[in-house]
Amino acid sequence: MEPQHLSDDQRWQIALAKDRNFDGVFVTGVHSTGIYCRPSCPARKPLRKNVVFYPTCAAAEAAGLRPCKRCTPETIAPDEQAVLRCLDVLRRSETLVSLGKLGVITGYSPTHLQRVFKRAVGLSPAAYHRALRRERASEALSSGLNVTDALYSAGYSGPSRFYDENKDRLGMTASAWSNGGRGAVIRYKVADTSLGPMLVAATDKGVCRLSFAEDRKELEKRFPNAELVEGGAEFSKMLADVVAAVEQPGHAPHIPLDVKGTAFQEAVWEQLRQIPPGETRSYAEIAAAAGNPKAVRAAGSANGANSVAVLIPCHRVVRSDGSLGGYAYGTEIKQELLKREQSDG
């Protein structure tokens, strides 16, 4: 979400939460004191009637305000500048940019830059760039291009490079992205759990669907050209692990997944998996951790696009005011999952 799309009510809630993930997105002007601050400023909460929000420091200063000496909103932390510069370079480049080159651009050592970038974005620069290329390939395939043309347009040197880069990650071939799972064998079963009937489906690579109150018809809609087979003995072993993960959420990092999303969606999903069981994060915090603090609405959409509930724990995301927010399978299930994790902790 662009800064101008944040409402003043949203900005006020962010300021109350002192959410540092929105530092640089807007500033808080306090006209009773004549200063403006970062959203995360630790100073005492001002009265709402005295506050006006500004998109930039320059706009606040044009209104006669001066920067807060405590939070220094006119400055940007060096690490933040380095990450933003790397993101800009990676988004503009069709070919992989080496960590050494990014280090020269930012003035950081490659080792330190890798650590700073991964802490902010959730992925290494190389992994982020690969995710961007997969996203471009998916968009090109969806536009009607044949596989070879789509992969070249996404920046791959050829189809073999795409398959080499993604063979350990994807259960479906590139053409299946736009062909409803053509060529993929998906095994599935509806299992009984204490939260109700649960659909679990998996390719040879891992779980591709976990949902509640759904059946084979849902799989047919998602993968109309895949071969759907009721799970056998090997599938039953994995199914038992998945059921256990639902009955005692927070203990499933070993279960393999086979999911596909855009670069930002995958960054969001990675951040969701890093939330410790029993804890929650706001949509704003997830957006910032995924590398785009302005994309709060997109983080919510990425949450909704999660096709493997519980295993990618989107139930751990709540609203900024602490309320549960929505959940694809109903707030009762979300509340129960959180309750089980907190009790277990």
Summarize the structure.
With 345 residues, the protein is of the alpha/beta class. 43% of the residues lie in helices and 11% in strands.
Describe the protein's architecture and organization:
The protein is α/β, with parallel strands linked by helices and 345 residues long. The chain has helices at residues 8-17, 57-62, 78-92, 99-106, 110-121, 125-142, 147-153, 159-166, 216-222, 233-247, 263-274, 283-289, 296-304, 331-344, and strands spanning 27-30, 35-37, 51-54, 66-67, 185-191, 198-202, 207-212, 227-230, 281-282, 317-318. The chain is built from 14 helices and 10 strands. The strands form 3 sheets. The protein has a 4-stranded mixed sheet. It has a 4-stranded mixed sheet with strand order 7-6-5-8, sandwiched between helices. Strands 9-10 form a two-stranded parallel ribbon. A hairpin with a 6-residue loop joins β5 and β6 (198-202). α11 (263-274) packs across α13. The radius of gyration is 22 Å and the shape is globular.
